[in-house]
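Quick start: what a row looks like.
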Amino acid sequence: MKNKLKIILKTILILIISSIIGFILLFISYNIPNNKVKNNIKDFIIKDSDMFPKEITNINNTIIDYYIESIMLTEIIVDGEDKLDLAASNYYFNERNPLDGLTNYLNNRELSKYNYSRYWHGYSLPLKILLSIFNLSEVKIINYYFQMLLIILICLELKNKKLQKYILPFLISIFFMMPMVIYKCLPYSLTYNLTLISSLFIIKYSNKINKNINYVFLLIGILTSYNDLLTTPLLTLCYPLLIYLLISKLSTKEKIKKVFILSIFWAIGYLGMWFLKWIISSIILHKNILSEAYDTILFRMSKTDLKGNNTKLLDPLFSNIKIFSEGINIILLMLIFILFLIVIIRLLLDKYNKLDSYEEIIPYVIVFCFPIIWYIVISNHSLIHSKFTYRILSISLFSICIMVIKFNQLLKK
């Protein structure tokens, strides 16, 4: 009982300290001069009126979201004397759309501010520092190099841990996220970069952090909440979780238990950090941000589409699968599915009386189901934003590729 109380108190303390540090960093970001940042944005934002262009014509899984990116860029350059208010409110402009608002603001037009305080916008400080030195295009090139470096390092660490057979499954799942689109879109990069960083950290320091792995996932959840604008947060849980399962020497039963424990700690970090932003903003702004956030959550979980029409339970899942499998992806997915069936059939024929051999796969089956659960629970958001939420299905793809390898190992026994 004392041990459980200690864990609870430590978790609450980490959340409180994280929120204080997080808000201080936001306050610092709003005290950095905006002139250089504005100049580095002004000449490099898109001039096209299409805020959702396709990198490849008629392929929806290559859509770039300049709508959210415009909000991000506006939020870091809003001027004002009350820096505390700016850090709590996270203003942007929405004249017809956020891109027009950003463009007009950069041209010194007076505009009405919109409050976006329900999110932390923790990316503000690093993004503002980068844009104080480089222009927007250069920042995106740096982002590309950074993402490629992380992927290479993860593959090298998998090899060092004698897990090289899982490099291809990892890369396949990453390719299905369309990395050639992600580096060009700042909001997509928020969870993607954190996913790669967290996965690399767990591989690199698995032996040192094993005793505190629960708190590692708590911190990953906190960082996700601090930086993300509800794009693909589940990636930051499931990729590090799958990597941990591959590295861990725990028994199958312990791994199953760990899947749920680590998921709970991540969720506490993610939701707890989010809740604390609502509390802080409500206190500073003298507004009921909690009520606004609660209404937004209910809407995002509702079984409705963008027009308010009722939808079916699995509509978000089917919508995301459709985008995930567009283009040549459908052929690759079919090949993986056929390979999976072949391995299953061979197992049933060779080891039908040894069903206990399949226990090793259960943790990966559970993680495989996480995106499905996400689409059902966060229904409205997953349906209307399927142009980027489809990337969550890469978790299921990574899981099933791991299962193919695990099944094949069983056949060799």
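That is the whole record. The chain has a mean pLDDT of 91. The CA atoms of residues 93 and 112 lie 6 Å apart.
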